[in-house]
Amino acid sequence: MRISAFVLVCLRVMAELGLFLLALCFLIFAFATSISTLKHGIPDFAGIGLAGMSLLSICLGIFPAEKFYDIEESIWVMLVVCSFLVLVGAFLLNLLVAQLNRAYSELFLDMQGYARLNRADVIVSTMAKSGRKRWAQFLQSLRLDEKLEFNEGDIGLAGGISASEPASVHPTTVDTVIRYGGSTSTAQPWPEEELDEDKFARLEKLILRVARPKGTPRARKSYASNAPSQGASGAESSDGSSSSEEESDD
C-alpha cells in the first residue's frame, strides 16, 4: 500500500520538479547572455551556447576543475559565476526540497485512498481473468463462513478475516464495546442496562446488611422494629430541647 501511494505521489510532484527545471533553464539563459556580453578571453564562455553549457556543467558538478583557473583571470566572469552558483545551490535547490516536502505531506493522505482504489481496480481485473473453479478454491481458503474471535473466548460474527496488530497502535482507555455473557441467539431478549439507581439500591442493601446486629432472629426483628421508633423519639427530643432553650433565653 505504501509503495503504491509513493509511486502516485511521485507522479503528482513531477509538476514541482518541472517548475524547478524551468527556473534553472531561465537562470542559465540569463547568466549566459550576461557573460557573453562581457569582454573576456575564456573560450568556454565565448557565446551564449558555450556559456550555457558551461553553467549547466557547473550545476551538475562535471565541469573540469582545471578550467576554473581560466575563470579567475576575469573578475567579472568569476563574480557572475559565483552569483549563479549561490542562486542555484542556496536558493533553488532548497526551494525544491521545501516544495517537495510540503507537496508530499499534503498529497500522501489522499494518495493512500487513491492507492486503495487502484488496488481494487487491479483485483477486479484479475477476478475477470480467473476461472470459476479457481475462484471457488480461493473463497474456500479464506474461510469466510467461520466466526471471528475478537479476544480469547470472545466469538464474533463471520464473513471477515482477522488480523492482529500491536496494542500500542490504537490505545483505548475505555472499552466502547459492551459484552454480555450467554447465548447470541436473536430470539433472546436484549439484556437491560444497569442504571445508577440500581447501584445505589444495591449499596443501600449492603450497608443495611452490614449494620444489622448478629444474633438470634428475634434480636434482629426487635432491632428492625425499634429502628424507626428510635428515629422518631430522637427527633422529638431534639425539638423539646430546642424549645426549652428558647424558654430559658426568655
Order of helices and strands: HHHHHHEEHH
The CATH class designation of the domain at 2-129 is Mainly Alpha
Helix-and-strand structural type: mainly alpha
Residue runs with pLDDT of under 50 for 5 or more positions:
227-250
Distance between the termini: 92 Å
**Average pLDDT over all residues:** 75
Shape assignment: elongated
Instruction: Identify the CATH architecture of the domain at 2-129.
Output: Orthogonal Bundle
- How many helices in DSSP terms? 8
How would you describe the oligomerization state of the chains in this entry? single chain
Summarize the amount of helix as a percent range.
55-70%
Strand order of the largest sheet: 1-2
Number of extended strands = 2
Radius of gyration: 43 Å
The biggest beta sheet reads: 2 strands, antiparallel
Indicate the CATH topology of the domain at 2-129: Helix Hairpins
Structure overview:
The protein is mostly helical. Among the domains are: 2-129, Helix Hairpins, CATH 1.10.287; 196-224. It contains eight helices and two strands, in the order ααααααββαα. Strands 1-2 form a two-stranded antiparallel sheet. A hairpin with a 2-residue loop joins strand 1 and strand 2 (154-158). Helix 2 (14-36) packs across helix 3 (48-60) and helix 2 (14-36) packs antiparallel against helix 5. The longest helix is centred in the middle third of the chain and has 55 residues, at 75-129. The radius of gyration is 43 Å and the shape is elongated. The N and C termini lie far apart (92 Å). Residues 227-250 have low confidence and may be disordered.
